Amino acid sequence: MAKVKKEVKILMIEDDLTLCDLVGSFLEKKGYVFYQHNTFEGAIDRVKQVRPDLIIMDLHFPDGNGLHLCKTLKDDKDYNKIPILVLTGRDYPVEKEVAMKSGVTDFFHKPMVYSKLTEKIDEILGESIKLTFWGVRGSVPCPGAKYAEFGGNSTCLQVKIPGQKKMLIIDAGTGLRVLGDEVDKSVENCEGRIFLTHAHWDHIQGFPFFKPLYKEGNKFQVHMPQQISGSTKEVLVDQMSYTYSPITSHMFKADLEYLTQTRGLQRYDGYSVEHITANHPVETAIYKFEIGKRSFVFAPDNELSTKDESSSKGKSYAYLKQFDSFVSGVDVLIHDSQFDYEEYQHKQRWGHSAWEIVVERSIKNGVKHLILTHFGPDLVDDDLFRIEEEAQEMARGTDTHVELAREGKVFRFPA
Ligand SMILES: [Zn+2]
Ligand SMILES: [Zn+2]
């Protein structure tokens, strides 16, 4: 466990007194300052009195529903930054979804394994790498009620590295606009790098709408592998020519550098990055980032086909071997799940994957955490809830944990 650097206060709201005492004595031994409260009633007052760094709680109390507590805290700007970890014996995705919307940060599943509990606390409070999805759609943005839960913006991922102020952004789909608005509100000046996998619209359309580009003093480097025609600058600036957009790139005020991402390991601000070429119609990067001992791979557009597997000569076979060795043992794989297997049957060689094949291959490669993303427009919320359940069922009993990306969701993993 990472060292607890300052006094960290944990408040446990739980009606099972024995459990509270056990957790309390364990956490106190680990150096945390532990408080408990055992009823629904008075819990909010207790939070205000203790002002904990973390709340651990149950959702079911004899005198009330824990979700109401979460909601009350979420709506209070003085307390909505306190992370809430829910202890639960149940594993229902829909219930989880409702709880996350009510302000729950994460879940810890019973039975209690105490070493895992401190790992989870470290993950929430400690030095964790944060992956925030600002867009999870492939092909085209999908507004509307059917997409409200998982989100309709196209691909954009932000990576936050502990102690690193410079931004790290991957892909500039329409999700980048939302990230830009957030940054514009919260910091005076910013700098960072934007890595683009390729120049298909769903990966660059948010670029002209990224507010920090219009502010003097900001500084960005934009990386992309060489495309069929045009440099990184030409590709991005051409989509803003006057025919297409009233706002042209001449209006950018930030200091911008456009770079062609070359092969091999490159080291930047607290991380290193390398890439291979995806199985996709144009030159598309699959990036692997290494941050200290941790690594993650971002492959939003990549077709993993099962074809040619039996033949040791086929092109697809050679590609799969290269992919396998690139992702083998990574902490997190974020991968294209544009289709389900049925839709994929009609769309083979389009350059996208069926989620079933991705899950299967990730299990085979020992990927610890698989995050499915880049959902096609045909996959609405109801489909994605079902896919998440089925994918988790497929991975049950293996070393691979599967989740679906959601717009606005932050995935943390220890640095
Ligand atoms: Zn795409
Ligand atoms: Zn593409």
UniProtKB/TrEMBL annotation:
Keywords, sorted A to Z: Phosphoprotein
Modified residues (4-aspartylphosphate): 58
Residue span(s) of domain Response regulatory: 9-125
PROSITE patterns for this protein: RESPONSE_REGULATORY
Gene Ontology BP terms: phosphorelay signal transduction system
Pfam families: Lactamase_B_2 (PF12706), Response_reg (PF00072)
The keyword ATP-binding belongs to this UniProt entry's keyword annotation: no
Keyword Phosphoprotein: yes
Protein name: Response regulator
